[in-house]
């Protein structure tokens, strides 16, 4: 089927980025959240990011205006139901995703493709809680969505070829590159990336180095554009912990045990940039290491 309209459930960091690139590519976008202030913030963020693209000559003013005109917002999840493609972009908690899919069930058209932007949770298990496992798959964008080139496409055990092909065409229309991943915990990118971050936290926890030295070592010694602890703050420490738990539970290997210090930061509510404190304190003019 040809995808013309896209529903995005969740207006947070990932959801507004997905709405941004979909609208810029010509899709009619309906953005849903449970809070009006989240929707307002999302539209403001999309507008700001489009304006930045215009100032850098990456997007024309007319394309910017057309993209914003294609985005509508709603608090009613039922209004998402008549779109061609739905992308769930809620928080990385399986029970929340199940509730979203259950609330959508009675409102989706039979041909609508249902996807999740999950970064680690089993696609087969999520699909089993819907009425369309054949038309369900993982559609994992990287953060920040307007900048990052890769999209992971993950088939569940029941996903049919037509669904995969339709989602692949969307990725191509966005001007991004698709990587096909099997339905194993954390897929490709986070299977490699998050354990590296967890090891960096262990390095901090064991006193091998402080926050600044660990990040500097990886930036200058491994040519990483961002240190692993800085990156963890950018991703969200709660998300990093959730992915490590999925890996640890799903693969039953002690090498994926979340670092106790990572758990402690999450328990403290120090989740990174989104709460202004994580491995760095962002409340001042410049970030300051917290350890």
Task: Give a short overview.
Helix content is 44%, strand content 15%. With 291 residues, the protein is an alpha/beta fold.
Give the arrangement of secondary structure elements.
Elements: E1 5-9, H1 13-24, E2 28-32, H2 36-55, H3 61-69, E3 71-74, E4 85-88, H4 94-104, E5 113-116, H5 123-127, E6 136-141, E7 150-155, H6 161-173, E8 177-181, H7 189-205, H8 211-221, H9 228-235, H10 237-251, H11 260-267, E9 280-281, E10 288-289
Parallel strand pairs: 1-2, 1-4, 2-3, 4-5, 5-6, 7-8
Antiparallel strand pairs: 6-7, 9-10
Helix pairs in contact: 1-2, 1-3, 7-9, 7-10, 10-11
What does this structure look like?
The chain is α/β, with parallel strands linked by helices and 291 residues long. The protein has eleven helices and ten strands. The protein has an eight-stranded mixed beta sheet, with helices on both faces. A two-stranded antiparallel sheet has the order 9-10. The longest helix has 20 residues, at 36-55.
Number of helices: 11
Q: Mean pLDDT score, rounded? A: 96
Q: Compute the gyration radius: what is it?
A: 19 Å
Net shape: globular
SSE order, as H and E? EHEHHEEHEHEEHEHHHHHEE
What is the share of helical residues?
A: 40-55%
Structural class: alpha/beta
The quaternary organization reads as single chain
Q: Care to count the β-strands?
A: 10
Major sheet: size, sense and barrel closure? Answer: 8 strands, mixed
């Amino acid at each position: 089927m040809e995808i013309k309209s896209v529903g995005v459930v969740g207006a947070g960091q990932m959801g507004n980025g997905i709405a941004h690139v979909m609208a810029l590519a010509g899709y009619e976008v309906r953005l849903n959240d449970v809070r009006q202030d989240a929707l307002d913030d999302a539209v403001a963020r999309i507008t700001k990011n489009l304006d930045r693209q215009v100032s850098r000559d990456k997007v024309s003013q007319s394309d910017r205006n057309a993209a914003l005109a294609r985005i509508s917002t709603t608090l009613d999840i039922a209004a998402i139901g008549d779109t061609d493609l739905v992308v769930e972009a809620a928080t990385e908690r399986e029970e929340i995703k199940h509730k979203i899919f259950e609330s959508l069930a009675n409102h989706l058209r039979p041909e609508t493709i249902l996807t999740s932007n999950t970064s680690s949770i089993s696609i087969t298990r999520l699909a089993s809680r819907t009425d369309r496992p054949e038309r369900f798959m993982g559609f994992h964008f990287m953060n920040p969505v307007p900048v990052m080139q890769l999209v992971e496409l993950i088939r569940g055990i029941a996903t049919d070829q037509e669904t995969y092909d339709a989602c692949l065409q969307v990725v191509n229309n966005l001007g991004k590159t698709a990587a096909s991943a099997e339905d194993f915990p954390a897929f490709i990118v986070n299977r490699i990336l998050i354990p590296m971050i967890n090891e960096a936290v262990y390095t901090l926890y064991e006193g091998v180095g402080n926050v600044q030295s660990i990040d500097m070592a990886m930036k200058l010694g491994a040519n990483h554009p961002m240190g692993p602890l800085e990156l963890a703050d950018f991703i969200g420490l709660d998300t990093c912990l959730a992915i490590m738990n999925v890996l640890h539970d799903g693969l039953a290997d002690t090498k994926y045990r979340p670092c106790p210090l990572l758990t402690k930061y999450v328990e403290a509510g120090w989740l990174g940039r989104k709460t202004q404190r994580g491995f760095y304190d962002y409340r001042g003019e410049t970030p300051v290491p917290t350890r």
